[in-house]
Amino acid sequence: MTTYNYFIGIDIGKTTNAVCVLDAMENRRLELSIPNSRAGMESLLKQLNKLPDFSLETTLFYMEHTARAAPRDILPTDAQLFLSHWR
């Protein structure tokens, strides 16, 4: 069973995504708005990599299913798939 260090919620919008990051103790570690684009996801990854003990393998992403607002029609099941979608 995976133990998660971080939980990331993303509210997907047409042009911007609201992001909130909680650690395993439910402390808010990061809250920001990023462009709904590859550049936005790259900037998010840079911020995430600054967090202590951050890795994609121990991070759980949550987001709403909103194919109309998303740049592509996917509902990813894990962090690797989600982030690779914007690479």
Task: Summarize it.
This protein has 87 residues and is α+β, with helices and mostly antiparallel strands.
Write up this protein.
The chain is α+β, with helices and mostly antiparallel strands. It has one domain: 2-Layer Sandwich (Nucleotidyltransferase, domain 5), CATH 3.30.420. The protein has helices spanning 38-49, 79-84; strands at residues 6-12, 16-23, 28-35, 59-63. A four-stranded mixed beta sheet has the order 3-2-1-4, covered by helices on one side. Strand 1 and strand 2 (16-23) form a beta hairpin. The model is unreliable at 72-77 (pLDDT under 50).
Topology:
Layout: E1 6-12, E2 16-23, E3 28-35, H1 38-49, E4 59-63, H2 79-84
Parallel strand pairs: 1-4
Antiparallel strand pairs: 1-2, 2-3
Short descriptors:
87 residues, alpha+beta, Nucleotidyltransferase, domain 5, 32% strand
Count of folded domains:
1
- CATH architecture assignment name: 2-Layer Sandwich
Average pLDDT, to the nearest integer? 81
Strand composition percent: 25-35%
Number of strands: 4
Radius of gyration: 12 Å
Q: Do you know the CATH topology? A: Nucleotidyltransferase, domain 5
Overall shape: it is globular
